[in-house]
């Protein structure tokens, strides 16, 4: 008798996540707000520490007491407090990624609107003062990756830790090498797609051989990536490293063969696709957009498995797949978080405690908690200079 992959996965989930409700119990399962942490401004991005003990929150922050601003705050889960800050970008942070990297250790990457991604020692002391643009070793500064056109909207480390991918408002996906060698910290491949408008999200497949993207023109796409065949040669890497961000748009046009790729598949028509995520086994891709649909695809072909949404349509912003593969949480413009059972697309919960657009959601590594922050879209001309908002909080939810 052949056993479907979902049966094997379900058995594995039961062993790996014993404190997460079983599928049979879903009718009686709810999440409740357990902790609320005040933020010094608008929260826009959330990443869990790999051990689940802390969270990195990026946003449009400005602390009048300390003078710290435009940074990533580290929240302690046990105490429900902000324990340190990594400051200070010239413009605020809208993208974070936290990893235990096999090459550089515990590392937090953050990026926003100031032409740079900053990598921090996640266990660093943090910042006690703020001079615009500072990047101090004493604070935990590890490496600054500069010369980026416009905003960095999303960051993701490859599963093996060799690369860092960054989505940008300039219509590119940048791939930096993290692994040691002559090209460490350099861009070793770049995808430019004028049709994207702005890339808003990037995610790696578990194998590291695919990447999914979402963009402002309403497309979901999956791209192949071979770390050897798709990597630029050393001469191209060196040539691009000398191009300033002001000259990069013309460089893209003049070097189209080096930066143009055809996706494995793509689908449009979704408004802004604010987030894409692979399921934990890499077989499915979920996408959330301003069309109010949560779409789930077969990762290898783009076949739509199902579409779902809220009973009253609302744009979706934050999105994350639980580590056991059974739940998708989507943050809505209706100020609620909608939780779906992934095999059927059935909505099982609506979490109400926020007072603004739910910008980001993230499940804890063990699946027992869900973090969220809500203060509007990550990129918004209307909110360009707005620091305060109706919901300056980070919330942590737990199973009842």
How is the biggest beta sheet arranged?
Answer: 4 strands, antiparallel
Tally of separate helices: 4
Structural class: mainly beta
How helical, in percent, are the residues?
Answer: under 10%
The multimeric state of the shown protein is single chain
How many domains make up the 3D coordinates?
1
Q: Separation of termini?
A: 38 Å
CATH structural architecture: 7 Propeller
* Strand numbers in spatial order across the main sheet: 1-28-27-26
- Roughly what fraction of the amino acids lie in strands? 35-45%
CATH superfamily grouping: YVTN repeat-like/Quinoprotein amine dehydrogenase
The shape, in one word, is: globular
Number of strands: 28
Q: Are there runs of 5+ residues with pLDDT below 50, and where?
A: 1-15, 23-28
Q: Please compute the radius of gyration using only Cα atoms.
A: 20 Å
Structure described in brief:
It is built from 4 helices and 28 strands. By secondary structure, it is mostly beta strands.
């Amino acid at each position: 008798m052949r056993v479907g992959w979902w049966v094997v996965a379900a058995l594995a989930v039961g062993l790996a996540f014993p404190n997460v409700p079983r599928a049979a119990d879903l009718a009686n399962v709810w999440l409740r707000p357990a902790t609320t942490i005040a933020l010094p401004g608008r929260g826009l991005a959330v990443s869990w520490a790999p051990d689940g003990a802390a969270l990195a929150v990026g946003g449009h922050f400005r602390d009048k007491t300390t003078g710290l601003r435009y940074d990533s705050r580290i929240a302690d889960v046990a105490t429900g407090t902000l324990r340190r800050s990594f400051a200070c970008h010239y413009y605020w942070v809208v993208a974070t990624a936290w990893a235990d990297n096999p090459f550089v250790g515990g590392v937090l990457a953050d990026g926003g609107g100031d032409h740079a991604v900053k990598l921090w020692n996640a266990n660093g002391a943090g910042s006690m003062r703020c001079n615009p643009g500072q990047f101090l070793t004493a604070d935990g500064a590890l490496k600054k990756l500069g010369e980026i056109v416009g905003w960095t909207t999303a960051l993701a480390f490859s599963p093996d830790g060799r690369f860092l991918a960054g989505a940008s408002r300039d219509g590119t996906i940048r791939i930096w090498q993290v692994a040691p060698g002559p090209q460490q910290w350099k861009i070793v491949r770049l995808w430019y797609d004028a049709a994207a408008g702005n890339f808003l999200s990037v995610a790696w497949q578990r194998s590291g051989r695919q990447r999914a993207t979402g963009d402002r023109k309403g497309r979901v796409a999956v791209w192949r990536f071979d770390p050897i065949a798709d990597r630029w040669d050393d001469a191209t890497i060196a040539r691009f490293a000398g191009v300033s961000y002001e000259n990069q748009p013309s460089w893209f046009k003049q070097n189209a063969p080096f930066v143009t790729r055809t996706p494995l598949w793509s689908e449009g028509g979704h408004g802004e696709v604010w987030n894409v995520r692979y399921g934990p086994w890499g077989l499915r891709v979920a996408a959330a957009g301003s069309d109010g649909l949560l779409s789930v695809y077969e990762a290898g072909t783009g076949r739509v498995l199902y579409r779902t949404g809220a009973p009253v349509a609302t744009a979706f912003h934050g999105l994350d797949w639980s580590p056991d593969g059974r739940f998708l949480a989507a943050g809505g413009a209706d100020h609620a978080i909608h939780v779906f059972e992934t095999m059927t697309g059935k909505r099982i919960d609506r979490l109400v405690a926020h007072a603004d657009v739910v910008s980001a959601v993230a499940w804890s590594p063990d699946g027992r908690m869900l973090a969220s922050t809500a203060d509007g879209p990550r990129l918004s001309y209307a909110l360009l200079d707005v620091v305060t908002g109706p919901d300056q909080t980070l919330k942590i939810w737990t199973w009842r």
